[in-house]
Amino acid sequence: MIVLNCISFSSCLRYKDIVNFQNGTKPLSEIADSIENHNELKIKPEDVIQVIITSYNKEEAAKFNLFAGQNGLIQPGANLTINDPLGYRIDSKGNIELPIVGQIHVGGMTMEEMRDEIYKKIKETGYLKELNVIVRFLSFRVTILGEVNNPGSYVIASQKITVLEALGLAKDVNLFSKRNNILIIREIDGKRSYGRINLKSKEIFNSPWYYLQPNDIVYVQPHKAKILAAPDPASRYISTLIAAVSLFFLIFK
What we know:
- This protein is of the alpha+beta class and 253 residues long.
- It has six helices and twelve strands.
- It has a five-stranded mixed sheet with strand order 9-8-12-10-11, covered by helices on one side.
- The two termini are 25 Å apart.
- Residues 1-11, 25-29, 68-74 and 77-84 have low confidence and may be disordered.
């Protein structure tokens, strides 16, 4: 039975089924492609953004920052570092409420545009002559499921991640993965869309789904060979019965 399983497995899963980026007349190392499918992230409602204001005048800069007080509430005050997890949640109208400055509209901006807008608004208050604004995306999370070696949800520190990097976080796809039909589920503005990519084709690099968006779900479908290689309960019973009959004849012959 084990031999039959091995034969079935080998007949359904071939070497070319587990090799990525195969097609093309030249090795990928000899090809230089321009990157045209990456769109810079735009800030939208429900995003969480960390904003840190630094300056030589630490006391004045602290007034523009958030910190968790003893009662656990987020308040303006003492200095923060980039590693602190406190951030602003963008409201339904695309605004944040910055201490002293007040409401700032940042919806639809890139991170750089948001940083420049905050810098301008703080300068207008006259509190700080010299300052630096640090912004970081805190809500960039992707979930990788299916035939990967370490499925789960991952928080991304940067503003950009490719599907290959995400699969790397999940310790790569396993032997039973269907590499030519990986599903990506994306929700934007109340609409859910579905995309598929083929790891076996170099055209993946041109796919609009190559760069992931916050809260994307990546599902790696299993190959049919996994079903063939999986132990069948019926076969286990038959094997046990054959073993019992063989033992009976060995004892009583």
